[in-house]
Fold this sequence. Notes:
- This protein has helices at 3-6, 15-43, 53-64, 93-96, 101-119, 122-150, 154-191, 196-233, and strands spanning 71-74, 81-83, 88-92.
- By secondary structure, the protein is mainly alpha-helical.
- It has one domain (3-233).
- A hairpin with a 4-residue loop joins strand 2 (81-83) and strand 3.
- It is elongated and about 65 Å long.
- The structure holds zinc ion.
- Zinc ion (ZN) is lined by residues 109, 113, 178, 181.
Amino acid sequence: MFIPYGYGYGYGFDWSYLLLVIVSLVLGFATQGYIRSTYATWSKVDLPGSQSGADVARAMLRASNVEVDGILSTPGELTDHYDPRDNTLHLSDGNLRGGSVASAAVACHETGHAVQTARGYLPGRIRTAIVPIVNFASSVWMIVFIIGAFMAMTGLMQLAIILFAFAVVFQIVTLPVEFDASHRAIAYIESAGYDQTTVRGAKKVLTAAALTYVAAALTSVLQLFYLLGQTQRRR
Ligand SMILES: [Zn+2]
């Protein structure tokens, strides 16, 4: 396990920290590499019927009886998102105008988030509600922790860990929200009568995307355990 390895070894070289950094980097690179290559593969496979990602999103919105206040273009690749604040879909140019299996998968996933908002999906509401706390906590926890560590104030370090825990909760709450959006996307793609290749490709793209969120959540949980280990050994 992770924590027992971290403390109880005196104040020599911090192997547990090195292990944390290596695990985080490997997980991050592996999942980012996998989504990029899966996305690239399925970006080369055209959707039947020369539809664009925006067309597919509009069709899914109609089928779900949900409206958005705009489908807009956003710069970059894999930058696609849904903004619940103004109920708009933001699709990267390749997905907005492009008509590949990958564009359809991403467009339907983001539409899935719009459907969640329209239906009042609870994990999505919790996630949106804690964003301001998470933003504050993420920006101050490390400063509080470093001050606490230097001054050997365990209370301050514990406060820092509680702040960091909000970021961990956010990463964990993100998981059901992302899985559900992909589930809605696949359900739509299957129900809309696309061929097996399209369904299979969309599943692959969305599974690869889900792994990046799992890796991020796992990394933040490991980091939380590491921080807890640090306060233990300083007592
Ligand atoms: Zn998403």
